[in-house]
Amino acid sequence: MLYLIGVGLCNEKSLTIEALDAIKNCDEVFLENYTSILQCSKEALEKITGKRIMLANRKLVESHELIKKAKEKNIALLIIGDVFSATTHITLFLEAKKQNVEIRVMHNASILTAIGITGLELYKFGRTASIPFHETDYPIEVLKQNQQFGLHTLFLLDLDPGNNRFLTIAEACDYLIKKGILPKTKALGCARIGCFDHKIVYAELDKLRSVDFGKPPYCLVIPGKLHFVEEEMLSYYEIK
Q1: Of 74, 109, 144, which residue is a domain's last?
Q2: Contact 100/15 with Cβ under 8 angstroms?
Q3: Both 154 and 207 in a single domain?
Q4: What value, to the nearest 5°, has the Cα angle with vertex 168 and ends 162 and 169?
Q5: Are residues 101 and 175 in the same domain?
Q6: What is the pLDDT at residue 88?
Q7: Residue 94: domain span
Q8: pLDDT tens for each residue of 34-77
Q9: DSSP characters over the chain
Q10: What is the mean pLDDT of the chain?
């Protein structure tokens, strides 16, 4: 059997009891380490699960080697956030189904829902886009489409944990301004959403660039049309 298990957004304590029970019954346990990062070490996960955990990069997951293993053993893939927040895991699920491998999914918190702590209504978010390290206009296209309908835009900022490289909120602001978004556009800079030490700041893009957000992961939100309750909530995060 192949277990796809959401780890949540913070640390080893974000695992559900159901997930812990499943992991303890697995022969091999893998942790994907390319879509996001946890605020704990692999060793902390090993201590709470009682299992040796192997890191799984994109190449390993997309090679479907885990599916091959799951034909003979119980295999767990631990996924940061929720299982289906990244399309690569949808592809893995589909391939397991095609190969008649029994599969079980265990959900957890995702940035796509936890971002609600900003006070912005979740059903008013439009398409989500990543701001990558490489040059592209795609995030701007997504933003403009969302703005046409007054929708909020969530930008996930690129990361490469294997090389300790993380696109910062300052770099994301610079990118948006370089692409023609006005420096006075208000946005939410967010770090470590889902953790007790999260940081959220609401300010103009040119002001967000100078804020110290601490450790990653990071995301950026440009609000669309605001309800008065959303405005009141944003005021708690605003810097003048």
Answers
A1: 109
A2: no
A3: yes
A4: 150
A5: no
A6: 81
A7: 2-109
A8: 888 989 999 999 999 999 999 999 899 989 999 999 999 999 99
A9: -EEEEEEESSSGGGS-HHHHHHHHT-SEEEEE-SS---SS-HHHHHHHHTS-EEEE-HHHHHTTHHHHHHTTS-EEEEEEB-GGGSHHHHHHHHHHHHTT--EEEE----HHHHGGGGS--GGGB---EEE-SS--SHHHHHHHHHHHTT-BEEEEEPEEGGGTEE--HHHHHHHHHHTT--TT-EEEEEESTTSTT-EEEEEEHHHHTT----SS-EEEEE--SPPHHHHHHHHTTB--
A10: 95
Q: Are residues 105 and 160 in the same domain?
A: no
Report the DSSP pairing between strands 28-32 and 53-56: parallel
The CATH number of residue 9's host domain is 3.40.1010.10
Token digits of residue 216: 């990653």
Residues 126 and 172 in one domain: yes
pLDDT at residue 99 in the model: 96
- pTM comes to 0.93
Q: What six digits make up the tokens of 54?
A: 């192997």
Is 240 part of a structural domain of the chain? no
pLDDT digit string, tens, across residues 76-133: 999 999 999 887 899 999 999 999 999 999 999 999 999 999 999 999 999 999 999 9
pLDDT of residue 166: 96
Q: How many domains is the chain partitioned into structurally?
A: 2
Please write down the long-range contacts of 142-148, taking CB distance under 8 Å and 24 or more positions apart: 143/176, 143/181, 143/222, 146/224, 147/222, 147/224
Q: Residue 116 carries which DSSP code?
A: G
